[in-house]
Design goal:
The chain is an all-alpha fold and about 140 residues long. Helices cover about 85% and strands about 0% of the residues. The radius of gyration is 21 Å and the shape is flat.
Length: about 140
């Protein structure tokens, strides 16, 4: 399908508008609320479709939309909370607990803060994949 020049201009306008949100993407509070907004958007769309489900494929589409929205909550909201909590715990010990910063549990945590947060995120991803597999087996 051939795109016309007017269509290309619209696409570039949309891309420029999305590019304006790039600095906000690293803001964890913005990502927290973005996850909630995406969940509400997809959840509302899926809920509207439940009234009109007439075939297996539409039911499967509902399930897919629900799981996409649920992963958006995990990815944006929960992962942002994990990063916020780990950063706040580290900054608390760096500012208010300088005398004990060289002692073991705190020293270990500060040295491996990024790895620890990545491991927690991987556990959430593994849990999501397990739930997804169980739920998709019910459908298929």
């Amino acid at each position: 399908m051939l795109l016309l020049a007017g269509d290309m201009k619209k696409i570039f306008r949309i891309l420029r508008a999305l590019k304006a949100f790039c600095p906000l993407y690293n803001n964890r509070v913005f990502r927290f609320f973005l996850g909630i907004a995406i969940f509400c958007l997809f959840g509302f769309t899926a809920q509207r479709w439940t009234d009109n489900i007439s075939s297996m494929w539409e039911g499967m589409l509902f399930e897919i939309l629900f799981f996409i929205s649920f992963y958006a909550v995990i990815y944006f909201t929960v992962f942002s909370l994990i990063d916020i909590f780990s950063d706040r715990a580290a900054s608390f010990h760096e500012t208010h607990n300088k005398s004990n910063i060289d002692k073991q549990p705190i020293k270990w945590f500060l040295k491996r803060k990024v790895k620890l947060s990545t491991c927690i995120k991987m556990l959430f991803n593994f849990w999501y994949i397990c739930v997804l597999i169980v739920e998709l087996r019910k459908i298929i």
